[in-house]
Design brief:
Layout: E1 2-4, H1 6-19, H2 23-35, H3 43-52, H4 56-62, H5 78-89, H6 93-102, H7 108-124, H8 128-141, H9 146-158, H10 165-181, H11 191-202, H12 206-219, H13 224-233, H14 239-242, H15 244-263, H16 268-283, H17 294-304, H18 316-343, H19 348-353, H20 355-384, H21 386-402, E2 414-416, H22 417-426, E3 429-430, H23 433-436, E4 446-451, E5 458-463, E6 470-473, E7 478-480
Keywords: Membrane, Transmembrane, Transmembrane helix
Length: about 500
């Protein structure tokens, strides 16, 4: 007879969580293993997980036998490195310096492990620039997880251009596009977006957080939680504030047109006033929002003018530009036809006797209609694509669910969100009672054990009220049952 190796089972779930960079859950699962009496030999693994989970005091306690003399040693063991990271995370500058040097010359998996520890320790110690560089090193050594990707987005947005609106918009766009394509998608889970926003605000970049939300909400208007987050951060005026100079110029041009029409003055006066109006509308703007730099205000205005991202098709910028152009051309042609019909029909006599006045009004109508058409084009496109946006979101969900049909025990170490729900409901079955009895308990989450009906692989689902559902693959190993060993003295 044999029994399930509980230590291997719990370590397997923790290992899968580690590969998904779920640092806090890794630490929780390892501590749960200790609570169940299976923590022998896990001190180093627990300490490393504690550093990454922002629990440096726990890590330092687990490695209390590491002496501070390691800070001046020429060679280091992994317990020394993890202990240094725990001290550095608590603000020990000497430990941080030694931790940096300890990574010199490391390669492969050792270099990756060190980079993770350095990034986490520097982040907790407030050395944000050092942490940003370490996270970039992590991404260069292995395909970045979603956690690492979000750290990189924060650094990219923080270092966006302060002089070039186009370059600044590119940084914001990279963040928004990455978040909209990240699983779970923003329509299903806002936590990845909130993580980026919270980290930006914690580092003093409220404007960057707002801009990311603004662009993401424009690209994905069906992500209602993202739209709500944006609404909580909007300050100052919007579209009307930005275009107030143009609106004033248009009002003055309207007065000029009325005077020209009533006094039979030349129509070119109206044309000149409208030319000035167009110039003001195009180039003179007040900044939208408050607390934004000139460049950020321009990025905000550009973000608010974007249409939803509904692939396949043209880029968002191309669709928006074409919508403005189509709206303007349609308005111009429509106004031209209407004024021509009126001038040669019901208003023919008035046109013959007051030609300058009629011409002035016609010019005014044409210019105003073109302006309105250019503004209405993107708005109508946004309204018209609402159904397409929802269809695209539904399509993404369907592809995610389709990707977890059948056995995924070889190719997947874990899943998130609707992947978890689909795999649990569509493939996994209830685990054997022997496995269920070994399930850990966490105070902040509800855990359940499932099994693959084909491979018998145990999967652990973790559900918390404040985030998406998670699923981790475990390891099914058995050890001989001590009670079933043969009695000594018999023949072999």
């Amino acid at each position: 007879m044999s029994t399930i190796d509980a230590r291997e089972l719990l370590s397997g779930w923790a290992g899968s969580a580690a590969r998904m960079d779920e640092f806090t859950l890794v630490s929780d699962l390892l501590e749960a293993a200790v609570a169940r009496g299976h923590g022998r030999g896990l001190e180093l693994e627990r300490a490393r997980a504690a550093v990454l989970a922002e629990r440096p005091a726990l890590a330092a306690g687990l490695l209390a036998d590491v002496d501070r003399s390691v800070l001046t040693a020429h060679a280091h063991r992994w317990p020394d490195v993890v202990a240094m990271a725990s001290w550095a995370a608590q603000g020990d500058a000497e430990a941080l310096s030694t931790l940096i040097r300890a990574g010199q010359g490391l390669q492969g998996g050792a270099a990756l492990t060190h980079a993770y520890l350095l990034a986490a320790a520097a982040e907790q110690a407030g050395q944000t620039e050092l942490a940003d560089g370490a996270w970039r090193d992590v991404a260069a050594m292995a395909p970045p997880t979603m956690v690492v990707s979000r750290r990189l987005l924060v650094a990219d947005v923080l270092h966006r251009s302060t002089t070039d609106p186009d370059a600044a918009a590119e940084s914001i766009a990279r963040a928004a596009v990455t978040l909209k394509e990240m699983l779970p998608i923003p329509e299903d889970e806002v936590r990845p977006t909130l993580d980026v926003v919270t980290r930006l605000e914690a580092r003093g970049d409220r404007a960057g957080a707002w801009l990311v939300l603004e662009m993401l909400a424009a690209l994905r208007p069906a992500a209602h939680d993202v739209v709500a987050l944006r609404g909580e951060r909007v300050t100052g005026g919007g579209w009307w504030r930005r275009n107030l100079p143009g609106a004033v110029a248009l009002a003055l041009a309207t007065v000029v047109t009325a005077v020209v029409a009533l006094t039979d003055r030349p129509a070119w006066i109206t044309a000149l006033a409208l030319f000035v109006t167009i110039a003001v509308w195009r180039w003179v703007h007040l900044p939208q929002g408050t607390g934004l730099s000139k460049v950020d205000a321009q990025v905000l205005a550009a973000s608010r003018g974007l249409t939803p991202d509904v692939p396949p098709g043209f880029s968002v910028e191309t669709r928006t530009r074409r919508a403005r152009r189509a709206g303007g051309i349609t308005a111009f042609l429509g106004t031209t036809v209407v004024t021509t019909v009126l001038a040669n029909g019901p208003l023919a006599e008035l046109d013959a006797t007051h030609e300058p006045a009629v011409d002035a009004v016609a010019v005014w109508l044409t210019v105003v209609s073109v302006l309105v058409g250019r503004l209405a084009g993107p708005w109508l496109l946004r309204r018209g694509t609402a159904r397409a946006v929802q269809q695209h979101v539904d399509g993404v969900r369907a592809r995610v669910v389709a990707g977890v049909r059948g056995c995924a025990c070889v190719r997947a170490v874990g899943m998130r969100g609707i992947e978890t729900d689909a795999y649990v409901a569509g493939h996994l079955v209830d685990a054997d009672p022997e496995l269920v009895a070994l399930a850990p308990t966490l105070p902040s989450a509800t855990l359940a054990v499932h099994q693959c009906p084909l491979s018998q692989t145990p999967w652990l689902s973790v559900r918390s009220p404040d985030r998406e559902a998670l699923l981790f693959r475990g390891t099914l190993a058995r050890v001989p049952d001590p009670s079933s060993e043969p009695e000594p003295g018999g023949y072999l």
